[in-house]
What does this fold into?
Amino acid sequence: MNISDNTFDVIVVGGGHAGIEAVLAAERMGCSVMLITAKYGRIGEMSCNPAIGGIAKGTLVREIDSLDGSMGKAADATRLHFRMLNRRKGPAVWGPRVQSDADAYAHFQRQNLAERGIVIIEDEVLALEGHTEKPEGIRCRKNGVIYGRTVVLAVGTFLRGRLFRGQNEWRGGRIGDITADNLEEDIRRRLFHVERFKTGTPARIVRTSVDTSDLIIQESEKTDFSFSMDRNALPIKHEICYLTKTNRNTMMAAKEYMHLSPLLAGRIDGTGPRYCPSYEDKVVKFPEREQHNIYVEPMGKRSRMFYLNGLSSSLPAEAQEKMVRTLPGFKKAVIAVYGYAVEYSFINYTEITPALRLRRTENVFVAGQMCGTSGYEEAAAQGLIAGANAARAVKRVPQHTPSRSNSYLGVMIDDIVSKGTDEPYRLFSSRAENRLYIRQDNAGRRLYEFGRSLGVLSERKSLLLEAEMNEAAEIEKVLKKSIIDGCQAELWCRRPGAEAERLVELIPMLSSFRMDTIFSVMLDEKYSGYIKRSMKRDESRRRASSVNLSNIASYMEIKEICWEAREVLEKAKPRTLADAEKIPGIRPTDLEGLLLYLAGKRFTWNNSLNTETK
Amino acid sequence: MQIKKNHDMNSDVSPEIICAPATPEGYSALAVIRVSGAGSFDLIERIMSLKAGRLRGTRRKLGIISEKGEIVDEVIAFSWPAGRSYTGEEMVEITCHGVPEIIRKIMDILIRHGAGKADNGEFTRRAFMSGKLNAIQIMALASIWNEGRETGNISGRFSRECEEFIILIDKAKELLEGDIEFGESHLDSERKVILKEFSSLIEASETLVKRAGNIEVGQKVFLMGPFNSGKSTLFNILAGGKALVSDIPGTTRDGTRKNIEIRGRKVILCDTAGTGGEGLDLQASKAVLEEIQEFDKVVWMSQDGRKKPPEELSGKSPEILEVASKCDLNPVSRQTSGKHGEIRKLSSVTGEGISLIEEWISTSPGNMSLAGAVDRIVNHILKAEEFVTGDEFGIASEHLNEAEREIRSILGKGENLTLSVERALSSMCVGK
It folds into this structure.
C-alpha cells in the first residue's frame, strides 16, 4: 500500500507523551489515524526524569485517565516507587507520584499503539502541505505528501532544536535525535508567531559506580493506589530511591566553570523554566544556599543508570564530572550521559484557540511543548484534547474544551491560551481557583460529563465511570440519613480527624462500598463550604466575563463609569466584559460600573461558554 | 466636540455638571464655588465670555460674570483637567467676592446654564467614582470633617497600612504555597517558618483593628427607653460630660449627642427623649426612630427591664442591648431575658454593668462597617493559622485568600463597605 494514496482523518506528528494521547483519542473516536515520528524506538520515551505525577500533575494524570487516556495505565504498569506527596498537608493538595521504569514505560506505550492498530511511520516532517487556512496534510522527507483531514503537531523540543553543553552546540531536538528545522522554517514562513524557550536535563550516572551506602534511602510507600481506575494489576516489587545533598564543593565546582555556561554566556536566548532550574541557575540565584536536595532515581529495573533529579546542567562535561563527584557517595561516579540544555521554538499563545487549534487554520492542532508548556503530564493532557478536537473537526461537530472551574486540564488550557507564558509553563495546584474541589480522588466524577460530551470515552470506561458516580451518589444518600453521635453523618465528616475507616465502623451499611469512593465523598463533604463559596465566585466571574457588550451603542453616555474609561471603551468596542477587562487602563471599578449599567438595562446574560471563538 | 455634545446632554433632567459653594455662608473677603463634571470648562468659558479653550488644562483666568449686560462680579477661575482634579473630572473653582448675594447669583447662572446643584459630599463621591479616593480615604475625610480634629492623614495612613498588610499576607501565602508545591524538595519542614510568618501577620492585624475603629465615623449609639429610666445618667458616665439630668421625667427632650471614644472605638453617643410621652415628647421620640439605621446601635433601658422596646424599633433592625437600669433599687430582678437576648443589669450608682455596656459598644461592629471588614480579616488569618497546624494547607490558603480579598475590597470599591461610604458622604457638606 502506498501511504500517500490514503487520506487519513487525523495525522499526528510526534510520538511523545502528547502525540500518543492525541492519536489514541482520535482513534477511540473512530477516526482513521496515523502517527509519524522521527524514530520508532523513541516513542513514549521519558526524555528527562523517570517519574510521572507530583503535586497537581498527579491529579492531571488522573484526569487524563478519566478521559480514557493511557498515561495513568502506563505509569501504573511500570512503577518502581510510589509516594503520595504532601501526605501531611491535607488531601486537597495530595500529589501522587510514581517513579517508572523508563524503558518499560516506553515499551508499554508502543505496545498500546500496536494493540490499537495505529499506523506508525518513521520519517521527518518537512512542512504542512497546502494553504495555511486549510492544509491538506504534511510533506515528509521520505514519503512525500501524506494527506490528512486534520493534523496534530506535537513535536516537543524538535522545532529548530539546539543542544548545548559548555562551549559545544549542536543540532537536535533531544540527544541522539534530529531537529525539525524545515518544519520550523515552514511554520515561520506561514507567519505564525514563534518564540524560543530552553530547558535542560541532568547527567545520568552509571549505577554501579555509586556507593549507595552513603545515600539517604527513600522507601516507596506501600499502597494499592493506582492512577487508572481500570485498576490493572500493579507491580509488587519496589525499587529504592535515594537522596543526597549538594555542598560547598559542588557550588565551587560549578562556579569555576560558570563562564562556560551557554546560558550565562548569552548563547541561549530562550527563557528557561523558573521552577525546574538548572544547577547553575540555583547557584546564581541562591548564592547563600550551599545545600540543595538531589534525588537519585533509578532509570529502570534493568537500567544501569541513575537519574540525578535536581542537578540539571549544561556546563562542560568536565565540570559536570567534578560537580557530581562532590556529592556524598559519588566520589567515583561515572557519567553515562552528560546533562545538556535544549533550546527550541514554540508557538505564541495568541495563535492557539481553547480547543488547541491553530487559530488561522481550520484543521491544524498543537499540543505539548509547542504550546509553551513543560512536563510529560501537561503534554499528554493537551495531546488528548487536541486529538479529540481534531476528531471532532473531522466529524464536523463543535470544538470542545474543559472548564477551568472543575479540572486542572481546564485551568492549564485556559492559562496557556489566554495569558501565555514567559517561561515553560508548569502546572501548580495554586493555579486553580477551586483547588479544594479539583482533587486527585474525584477526577472521574469531575470529568465524566465532559468526557461523555467530548466523545472520547470507550464503552468500558463509560461503565466504570458511571459505576463510580452511582456509588458516590449511594454513599451520599447513606450519609444523609445516618446519625453519628447525635449529629448528621454529613456534618460528622467535617470534623477534624474524621476518617473513612472510622466512618465505616460507625455505619456498617457503608462496608459494601469501595473505600476510595467513601473517602472521596467524605472530602466533598469536608470541603463543601469552601467549594460552594468558590463555585459561587466562579459563577459570577464567568457570568460577568461572558456578558455581551456588543449591544452597547455608545459608551460615552454611561454615567456609571469614568470619563477616560468611556473614551477607551468607545474606541475598543469590546465584545464581552472579559475582553473589556483586558484593555489597558480599564480598572475593576469601571467593570463594576459597567455591570451596574447593564443590570439597569436588563441585558441578558450570554451563557454560551465553552464555545470557541474564531 | 465631545465636550460640546456632553454639555447639551447635561441640560436634561440629570445634570452631569455639579456646582456648589465650597466656603461657608455669610460675608467674607472671598468665596469659592466649585464646578465639576465633563463640560465644565466649556460652561465656565461661556459664562465668563472667554474664548473657547482658554480653560483647557491647569489654568487660571480672570474674567467677568455678567447677567443681562449687568456685571455680577469679577472672578478668577482655576481649572483642572480630567484626571488631575480632586474629583477626577474636569473641574473649575470660581473665586468670587464673599457676598451672599453674589454667590447666589453666580449659582443661579450656573444652574441656568445646565449645571446641577451638588448633594452632600457629591464632589467627594465623584472622586470616589473616578478612583481618586478610596473608601478609607473618604471615611477619614468625613471623620475630620465631622469632628474638626485629625484622626489620620487623608492621603491615607490606614490605606498604606492596608497595603503593607497585603504584602504580609502575600509573604505568608508565598511560603504556604511554596511548601505545598515544592515542600518535597527540602526535607526539613517549613511549617515552623510558616507559623512564624503567621504570628507577625496576626500582630499586624491587631493594629489594623485599632485603626479601623478610629477612622470610621457615624456609628450612632442611641440610649433609649421610657422617661426617667436613667439614660442621661448613663450618657454622662459614658461621655464623661454633662447632659442635663434631673429626676423630673422629660428633662432631655431635644436629645444630646457627643462624639466619644469607647475603648478605642469612635461612636456618636445619642441621648434621647423618653418614649411614651405626648405632644412634643412624642414628636421627639418619633424623630429619633426616623433617624436610626440598621448599622446603628440602641441601648434600650427601662427600670428593672420591665418595658420592652417598641415594635417600630425592632423593625429598623439596629443592634439592640436591653438593660435593666437602677438595679440597685431592685436587687432581685424578675426579668432576665428579653427579645434581644439576655437583659443586662445596670446601676449608675454602684457602677455595676457599665463596663459590660462599654464592651458591647466597642465590639461587634456590624457587617457593613470598616471595622466589621477588618474583623473578618483577622478571623480569616486566625483560621488560616489553625489549619496549618491542623494539616490542611489547602484550607489555610483559602482563608488567606479570603483575607486578601476582603482587604482589597476595603482599598478598592468594596461591595461590603458601600454603606459605610454612603454614610460618610452624607455627613459631609455640600461643597465637599
